[in-house]
Amino acid sequence: MNHSYDFGQETDNRIVYVRPVATKDLPQDVRKRIGGAETVFAVHSSKGERLALVRDRHLAFALARRNDLAPVSVH
Strand 15-22 and strand 39-44: pairing? Predict the structure, then answer.
Protein backbone atom coordinates (compact mmCIF):
# COMPACT_ATOMS: atom_id res chain seq x y z
CA MET A 1 0.00 0.00 0.00
CA ASN A 2 2.30 2.72 -1.23
CA HIS A 3 0.29 5.32 -3.10
CA SER A 4 0.17 9.09 -3.53
CA TYR A 5 -2.81 10.82 -1.98
CA ASP A 6 -4.48 14.05 -3.05
CA PHE A 7 -5.70 15.91 0.00
CA GLY A 8 -6.46 19.06 -2.00
CA GLN A 9 -10.17 19.03 -1.15
CA GLU A 10 -9.46 19.55 2.55
CA THR A 11 -8.54 23.24 2.36
CA ASP A 12 -11.60 24.51 4.27
CA ASN A 13 -11.35 22.18 7.26
CA ARG A 14 -7.89 20.91 8.19
CA ILE A 15 -9.14 18.29 10.68
CA VAL A 16 -9.12 14.66 9.57
CA TYR A 17 -10.15 11.60 11.53
CA VAL A 18 -8.07 8.44 11.92
CA ARG A 19 -9.80 5.19 12.80
CA PRO A 20 -9.03 1.48 12.68
CA VAL A 21 -10.81 -0.57 10.01
CA ALA A 22 -11.09 -4.35 9.97
CA THR A 23 -9.89 -5.56 6.59
CA LYS A 24 -12.74 -8.07 6.48
CA ASP A 25 -15.10 -5.07 6.16
CA LEU A 26 -13.35 -3.76 3.04
CA PRO A 27 -14.18 -4.64 -0.57
CA GLN A 28 -12.43 -7.73 -1.95
CA ASP A 29 -10.24 -5.77 -4.40
CA VAL A 30 -8.93 -3.60 -1.56
CA ARG A 31 -8.27 -6.63 0.66
CA LYS A 32 -6.12 -8.19 -2.07
CA ARG A 33 -3.83 -5.14 -2.12
CA ILE A 34 -3.53 -5.01 1.68
CA GLY A 35 -2.08 -8.47 2.12
CA GLY A 36 -2.41 -10.31 5.42
CA ALA A 37 -3.17 -7.40 7.76
CA GLU A 38 -6.32 -7.84 9.87
CA THR A 39 -6.62 -4.13 10.64
CA VAL A 40 -5.62 -1.01 8.74
CA PHE A 41 -6.18 2.66 9.54
CA ALA A 42 -8.38 5.01 7.56
CA VAL A 43 -7.98 8.77 7.27
CA HIS A 44 -11.36 10.46 6.81
CA SER A 45 -12.29 14.04 5.97
CA SER A 46 -14.57 16.00 8.29
CA LYS A 47 -17.39 15.13 5.84
CA GLY A 48 -16.74 11.40 6.29
CA GLU A 49 -15.02 10.75 2.97
CA ARG A 50 -12.26 8.14 3.19
CA LEU A 51 -9.07 9.79 1.99
CA ALA A 52 -6.56 7.02 2.60
CA LEU A 53 -5.95 3.57 4.04
CA VAL A 54 -2.57 2.85 5.63
CA ARG A 55 -1.02 -0.06 7.51
CA ASP A 56 -0.72 1.54 10.98
CA ARG A 57 -1.90 4.40 13.17
CA HIS A 58 1.48 6.11 13.30
CA LEU A 59 1.66 6.21 9.50
CA ALA A 60 -1.90 7.61 9.29
CA PHE A 61 -0.98 10.50 11.60
CA ALA A 62 2.30 11.13 9.76
CA LEU A 63 0.52 11.14 6.40
CA ALA A 64 -2.05 13.65 7.63
CA ARG A 65 0.55 15.96 9.17
CA ARG A 66 2.73 15.78 6.06
CA ASN A 67 -0.26 17.15 4.15
CA ASP A 68 -0.77 19.99 6.67
CA LEU A 69 -3.82 18.35 8.21
CA ALA A 70 -4.68 17.95 11.89
CA PRO A 71 -5.36 14.27 12.65
CA VAL A 72 -7.73 13.25 15.44
CA SER A 73 -8.16 9.68 16.65
CA VAL A 74 -11.64 8.14 16.46
CA HIS A 75 -12.61 4.85 18.08
Answer: antiparallel
Amino acid found at 28: Q
Q: What is the mean pLDDT of the chain?
A: 87
Q: Report yes or no: 50 and 42 within 8 Å, Cβ to Cβ.
A: yes
Tens-place pLDDT, residues 33-66: 888 899 999 999 999 999 999 999 999 999 999 9
One DSSP character per residue, 16-69 reads EEEEEEEGGGS-HHHHHHH-S-SEEEEEE-TTS-EEEEESSHHHHHHHHHHTT-
Dihedral, CA of residue 46, residue 50, residue 54 and residue 59, to nearest 10:
-10
